[in-house]
């Protein structure tokens, strides 16, 4: 077969479709199970035509093997399988994904339902390799021409890029969010790995390596999808690129690593895929800045995706995100280290200035104070102040020593030290320096051991610097050694000399050893002879030793002593040669030894000049101060570790007060407990127990806490003063201070003590008065303190509750409250106490007799003179009687609220019913909307099957198949009818019916349908009213309800059918939407079945909802009942209880007329004719079928595809007997308008409408307009022939009646009574905006012998009345623009006696006219017109 086929010779359905259309035309279909395209089923042809003309990717599978078809848009999906896949079984085309799609296709091929999936993962092999794809598609079954499933049609949408892009964006977002608040490099790497683990499809496994600080290697910092220890996850990588993953400093672009299985074996983790990655990508993580650390991200690649530019860019973004996070952490870490360094510098500065201020201010106090006294003394008394001048000299030397140390240290740090290294007999020099401390050691009770044998030769040292080193170490040992010995030794060790200064002192904490030689560092809490020191001594020693090329270290054990070891090298090679001297300078030794020794001696107890006796006062004691308690001289206790300071202050105050001096806080605490002083003066920086510790101990001691304390400190400034006063001191005096200032502060403190005691006495007296007043108050009174504890309850409280002070004070008062109120009362009280605000609370309080009474507790906060919160004062009042009144009022309110809630609930129920009704109406509109196209399709199938029946007559097998197909059409037609019934869109033919007669008539059929297992009981109320309803629909509804009842009873049980009169009152109507109060005929069906659960009951009327097993029900039975009843103006209600049965009550409006006479419909054999029929149908297939059926019946057939074309045929003058037109057609001209204009052109033409859905064109209020004939699709050949003959006969009778013969039967009413001559030939003006109603009314009036002038609105009618005579007006009330009532008034201004008939669907008409209710027949129309004429000619009274 050639590759190209002439399009003109191809079947119509293959005539388009681009490349795939050409491929299908060229394909040898005869060699397949489908055969030539001309023989394909019609449904397959339709499906293929839809597919080829669609721009959406679509494929079709047909037959048992699902032979494959697809369109041009699908080529991108099928990829490299194009065009090979055309005509092959779907299981062969998609063998790799058949396990995924095969079950879905099998489900769809059952014909019961299709399938729909979104974003389905499919691993397709379209281009020679499996690839990850995502598709949204549906499998919809396509029926074969016999109704069985013939194949599948599938519409596709490719979602691959969208889904992959979304998950990659999600990973990048999670990665940024997860690492945003990380603060360390390990934390960043760990969180990055956690984020990468969330996308195992793009990253089956991932490894993150970070270079070490030295750059020699990179370590594994994070991983996901693969365990540590795996061969593919080594802990370190070399930077030379020799490791399993390439990592070099020059790596800038991603590196693809192939064949992972050969490198690591087959046990690589696959992630979420069924095979492990075959490739990995190594992506560099760039470093930031010179100090940044580079990294490497290794990612196992998705085995079902190509490593294309998009994949590469994504991994680059991931690596960039990680690099940015690492950079942020490194920046944060650098800033943190810098902040810590600055904080440490600031701390060292603070410590230094704190220490040095003490070291400066104490000597200055001891210098300035005595000098002030000397300057104020008489000239002849200067000699008496020698001791003062000695103190001044000694402290001047101390300051000089401190300044020299600071200068030495600053010169060393600045590199400006001018050292001179001269050869020195280091052993004898060291022994000489150490011996200077012997006298001090002996006075302290210590042994000094000096062991310095001669060294092999002289050692080059700066003698002054060495002196500083030795004296500092000895002074330090003396300060912290209280017993035992101090040893100094010098030995040659290796290539140098080693100096060891050891002691048996207090030792040093191990945690302090690393910082011992830091500048300004002092060991906090160390026990020593003095707290003096700046913290630069050992730091200076270390710097001096370093200048000699030596080292210093310390060994220590707590409570066993310390050893300082200094090593200096022999020779001069390690020294700057320009500073080395060849000969000794002969400088004197020990120039500063005496200063160090004198300072050490001052640390010893009893080292003051006047030790042993009372210090001589510096100020005269002319004024005597009386102690506040004893009346004698006030006693002062002085605590200071500096002997000079103790001596100086004692001499200042001794003439005025009795002063006891102690060296530290511990001694002071013992002294005041032994003999309570009147005031305490204490230094802050002291050994053993410092000033703050002493102050804290005083305030915690109940016997001492009221002692006034003045702190003496070298720390100046507001912050230091606030700290001291906040700690509890009464005053804070900064060194240096003058003698008069000290005395003034002491006097003031003692005076304040006296005033405080007087105030305390006054307070106690005031409290006594308050308690007396409160105890006699008629209410309960209480007082609390700052912490909330109750400190006072008055007498009324104890009498009411029966509590005692032991059980009620503190928080015991809560025990008297009701257990249920206790926690709430406590919480409210504590919350108010925390906010320091007033409060009120109510609780039940236990009375002494054990009963509980309601009480109100109200309190106001107490404040001192400065506004400080002190606690509360409150009162408690019994309010039981008031609560009882409130409870009664509350019960009344509760009752009212219950009634309101009940009303609201009832309203909500009504609203819920309204929403349900609206939902059902919306679903009804949707279901009704599909009827037209579906009925057209059924009509095509049905008509062709009936035509085919003649061709296969005599072929039993073929006839049986045709009968089966026609049965399927019948079922489809029934389904559409049920849909229309539910949607309230079916055209009803209602009449006055007696339901009792109808139920009795169905009794036999129901027994036959329901079976012998169901017992049927019928109950018909006497005097049953009639109703206006479509009898056939009532029968269908009753049959549906009975069958549902049988199924609910499983074929066995009692079925009760009841018909009776009912009245639905206003309350019932208010509770149910769409129910009008009034009289109804009730039809009830009750079964003894399983009942309906409450959650199912709300859904039973929804279309397609069923609880029956699959295949045993469509779910449309009750929906049809619901729609029919609502369309008939009725109401349906279900009552059910699980396990008890169900009752369905149908209420149809009462009719006040007698039951209509039943007319027997002609069911005789089909008959044709020779008349001319114009068939108007927009659907080509339906039109062709109808034309063939009409021709087969013998009619001469004309055809048109729309109303406009049909009108052209009518106006051409061709004789036409019947217009057979579809109702719903495209185009500007509607079918009713076509019928009206055809009637105008051909008055004798008959009109028959046909439709699958009328869309309110000829149906109003659910009922066919009067005079309209309708044949509903789909219809059989027999139904068509009978309906055509019926319409033609009626038209012939009307035409005959119009010519003067009234004896024939009327199609819509009984014969019209003979009228007087004056009533014939009236000229009637008909005004109606609905064209079809206007057409029917004109036809009826013409049949009654009147002349008719018609108008579509009131304005057109007024124009006609001005130019033509009018005998009567027949008008609709609701017209566009001017209403019918206004039109009648306007015409009566001109013609006052004009007869007027108002035609309306309302229940009444305006005054001045006759009401003609719609719908109406020709009898009602004639009667209304007669009444209007009679009313107009009747003479007025």
UniProtKB/TrEMBL annotation:
Top EC class of this enzyme: transferase
Domain (PAC): residue spans on this chain: 839-891
Modified residues (4-aspartylphosphate): 683, 1222, 1372
Keyword Phosphoprotein: yes
Pfam family, one: Response_reg
EC number: 2.7.13.3
Coiled coil: 893-920
Keywords noted in UniProt: Coiled coil, Phosphoprotein
Domain of life: Bacteria
Domain PAS: start-end pairs: 766-837
Listed NCBIfam families: sensory_box
Protein name: histidine kinase
């Amino acid at each position: 077969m050639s590759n190209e086929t002439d399009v003109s010779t191809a079947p119509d359905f293959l005539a388009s479709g681009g490349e795939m259309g050409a491929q299908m035309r060229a394909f040898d279909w005869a060699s397949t199970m489908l055969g030539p395209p001309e023989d394909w089923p019609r449904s397959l042809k339709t499906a293929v035509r839809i597919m080829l003309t669609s721009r959406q990717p679509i494929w079709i599978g047909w037959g048992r093997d699902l032979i494959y078809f697809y369109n041009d848009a699908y080529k991108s999906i099928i990829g490299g399988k194009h065009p090979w896949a055309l005509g092959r079984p779907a299981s062969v085309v998609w063998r790799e994904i058949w396990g995924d799609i095969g079950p879905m296709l099998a489900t769809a091929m059952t014909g019961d339902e299709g399938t729909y999936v979104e974003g389905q993962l499919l691993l397709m092999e379209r281009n020679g390799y499996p690839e990850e794809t995502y598709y949204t598609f549906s499998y919809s079954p396509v029926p074969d021409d016999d109704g069985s499933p013939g194949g599948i049609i599938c519409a596709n949408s490719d979602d691959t890029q969208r889904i992959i892009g979304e998950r990659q964006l999600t990973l990048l977002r999670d990665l940024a969010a997860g690492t945003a608040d990380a603060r360390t490099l390990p934390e960043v790497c760990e969180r990055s790995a956690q984020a990468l683990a969330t996308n195992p499809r793009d990253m089956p496994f991932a490894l993150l390596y970070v270079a070490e600080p030295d750059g020699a290697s990179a370590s594994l910092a994070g991983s996901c999808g693969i365990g540590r220890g795996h061969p593919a996850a080594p802990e370190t990588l070399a930077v030379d690129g020799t490791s399993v993953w390439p990592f070099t400093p020059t790596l800038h672009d991603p590196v693809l690593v192939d064949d992972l299985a050969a490198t690591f074996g087959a046990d690589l983790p696959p992630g979420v895929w069924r095979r492990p990655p075959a490739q990995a990508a190594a992506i560099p993580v760039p470093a930031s800045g010179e100090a940044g650390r580079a990294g490497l991200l290794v990612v196992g690649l998705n085995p079902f995706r190509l490593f294309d530019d998009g994949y590469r860019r994504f991994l680059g973004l991931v690596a960039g995100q990680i690099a940015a996070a690492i950079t942020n952490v490194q920046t944060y870490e650098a800033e943190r280290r810098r902040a810590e360094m600055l904080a440490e510098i600031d701390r060292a500065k603070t410590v230094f200035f704190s220490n040095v201020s003490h070291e400066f201010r104490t000597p200055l106090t001891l210098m300035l104070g005595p000098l002030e006294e000397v300057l104020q003394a008489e000239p002849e008394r200067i000699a008496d102040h020698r001791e003062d001048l000695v103190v001044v000299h000694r402290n001047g030397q101390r300051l000089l020593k401190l300044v020299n140390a600071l200068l030495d240290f600053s010169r060393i740090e600045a590199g400006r030290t001018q050292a001179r290294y001269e050869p020195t007999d280091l052993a004898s020099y060291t022994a000489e320096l150490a011996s200077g401390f012997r006298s001090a050691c002996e006075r302290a009770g210590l042994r000094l051991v000096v062991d310095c044998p001669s060294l092999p030769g002289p050692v080059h040292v700066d003698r002054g610097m060495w002196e500083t080193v030795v004296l500092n170490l000895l002074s330090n040992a003396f300060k912290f050694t209280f017993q035992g010995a101090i040893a100094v030794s010098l030995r040659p060790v290796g290539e140098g000399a080693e100096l060891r200064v050891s002691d048996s002192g207090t030792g040093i904490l191990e945690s302090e050893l690393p910082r011992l030689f830091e500048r300004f560092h002092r060991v906090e809490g160390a026990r020593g002879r003095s707290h003096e020191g700046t913290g630069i001594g050992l730091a200076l020693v270390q710097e001096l030793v370093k200048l000699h090329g030596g080292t210093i270290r310390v060994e220590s054990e707590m409570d066993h002593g310390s050893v300082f070891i200094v090593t200096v090298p022999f020779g001069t090679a390690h020294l700057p040669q320009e500073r080395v001297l060849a000969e000794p300078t002969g400088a004197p030794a020990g120039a500063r030894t005496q200063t160090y020794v004198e300072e050490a001696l001052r640390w010893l107890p009893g080292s003051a000049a006047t030790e042993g006796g009372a210090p001589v006062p510096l100020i005269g004691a002319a004024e005597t101060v009386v102690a506040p308690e004893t009346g004698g001289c006030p006693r002062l206790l002085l605590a200071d570790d500096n002997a000079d300071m103790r001596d100086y202050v004692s001499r200042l105050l001794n003439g005025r007060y009795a002063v006891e001096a102690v060296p530290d806080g511990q001694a002071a605490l013992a002294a005041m407990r032994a003999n309570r002083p009147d005031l305490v003066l204490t230094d802050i920086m002291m050994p053993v127990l410092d000033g703050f510790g002493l102050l804290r101990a005083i305030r915690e001691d109940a016997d001492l806490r009221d002692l006034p304390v003045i702190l003496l400190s070298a720390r100046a400034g507001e912050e230091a003063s606030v700290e001291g006063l906040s700690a509890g001191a009464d005053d804070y005096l900064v060194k240096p201070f003058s003698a008069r200032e000290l005395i003034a502060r002491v006097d003031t403190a003692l005076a304040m003590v006296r005033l405080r005691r007087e105030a305390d006495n006054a307070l106690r007296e005031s409290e006594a008065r308050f308690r007396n007043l409160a105890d006699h108050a008629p209410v309960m009174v209480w007082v609390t303190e700052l912490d909330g504890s109750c400190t006072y309850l008055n007498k009324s409280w104890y009498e009411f509750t029966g509590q005692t002070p032991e059980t009620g004070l503190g928080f015991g008062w809560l025990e008297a409250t009701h257990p249920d109120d206790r926690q709430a009362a406590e919480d409210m009280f504590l919350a108010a106490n925390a906010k320091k605000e007033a409060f009120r609370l109510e609780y039940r309080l236990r009375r002494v007799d054990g009963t509980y009474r309601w009480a109100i507790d109200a309190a106001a906060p107490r404040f001192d003179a400065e506004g400080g919160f002190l606690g509360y004062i409150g009162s408690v009042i019994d309010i039981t009687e008031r609560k009882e009144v409130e409870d009664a009022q509350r019960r009344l309110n509760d009752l009212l609220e219950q009634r309101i809630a009940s009303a609201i609930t009832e309203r909500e129920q009504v609203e819920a019913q309204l929403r349900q009704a609206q939902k059902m109406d919306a679903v009804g509109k949707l279901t009704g909307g599909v009827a037209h196209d579906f009925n057209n399709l059924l009509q095509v199938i049905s008509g062709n099957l009936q035509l085919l029946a003649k061709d296969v007559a005599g072929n039993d097998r073929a006839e049986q198949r045709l009968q089966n197909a026609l049965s399927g059409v019948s079922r489809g037609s029934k389904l559409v009818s049920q849909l229309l019934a539910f949607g309230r869109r079916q055209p009803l033919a209602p009449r006055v019916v007696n339901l009792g007669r109808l139920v009795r008539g169905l009794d036999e059929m129901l027994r036959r349908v329901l079976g012998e297992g169901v017992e049927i009981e019928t109950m018909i109320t006497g005097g049953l009213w009639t109703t206006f309803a479509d009898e056939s629909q009532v029968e269908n509804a009753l049959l549906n309800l009975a069958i549902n009842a049988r199924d609910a009873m499983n074929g066995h049980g009692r079925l009760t059918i009841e018909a009776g009169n009912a009245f639905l009152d206003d309350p019932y109507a208010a509770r149910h939407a769409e129910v009008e109060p009034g009289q109804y005929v009730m039809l009830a069906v009750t079964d003894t079945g399983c009942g309906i659960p409450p959650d199912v009951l709300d859904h039973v009327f929804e279309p397609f909802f069923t609880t029956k097993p699959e295949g045993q029900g469509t779910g449309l039975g009750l929906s049809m009942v619901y729609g029919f009843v609502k369309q008939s103006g009725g109401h349906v209600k279900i009552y059910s209880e699980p396990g008890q049965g169900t009752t369905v009550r149908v209420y149809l409006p009462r009719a006040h007329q007698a039951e209509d006479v039943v007319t027997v419909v002609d069911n005789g054999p089909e008959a044709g004719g020779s008349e001319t029929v114009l068939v108007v149908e927009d659907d080509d297939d339906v039109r062709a079928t109808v034309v063939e059926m009409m021709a087969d019946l013998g009619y001469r057939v004309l055809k048109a595809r729309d109303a406009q074309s049909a009108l052209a045929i009518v106006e051409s003058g061709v004789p036409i007997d019947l217009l057979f037109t579809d109702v719903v057609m495209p185009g500007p001209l509607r079918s009713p308008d076509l019928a009206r204009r055809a009637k105008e052109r051909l008055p004798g033409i008959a009109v028959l409408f046909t439709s699958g859905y009328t869309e309110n064109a000829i149906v109003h209020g659910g009922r066919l307009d009067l005079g309209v004939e309708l044949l509903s699709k789909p219809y059989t050949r027999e139904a068509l022939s009978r309906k055509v003959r019926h319409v033609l006969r009626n038209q012939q009778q009307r035409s005959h009646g119009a010519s003067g013969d009234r004896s024939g039967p009327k199609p819509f009413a009984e014969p019209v009574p003979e009228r007087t001559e004056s009533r014939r030939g009236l000229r009637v003006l008909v005004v109606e905006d609905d064209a079809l109603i206007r057409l029917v009314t004109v036809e009826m009036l013409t049949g009654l012998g009147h002349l008719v002038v018609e108008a579509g609105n009131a304005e057109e009618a007024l124009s006609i009345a001005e130019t033509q005579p009018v005998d009567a007006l027949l008008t609709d009330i609701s017209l566009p623009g001017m209403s019918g009532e206004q039109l009648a008034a306007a015409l009566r201004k001109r013609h006052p006696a004009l007869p007027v008939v108002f035609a309306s669907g309302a229940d009444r008409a305006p005054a001045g006219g006759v009401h003609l209710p719609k719908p109406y027949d020709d009898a009602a129309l004639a009667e209304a017109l007669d009444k209007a004429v009679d009313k107009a000619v009747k003479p007025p009274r």
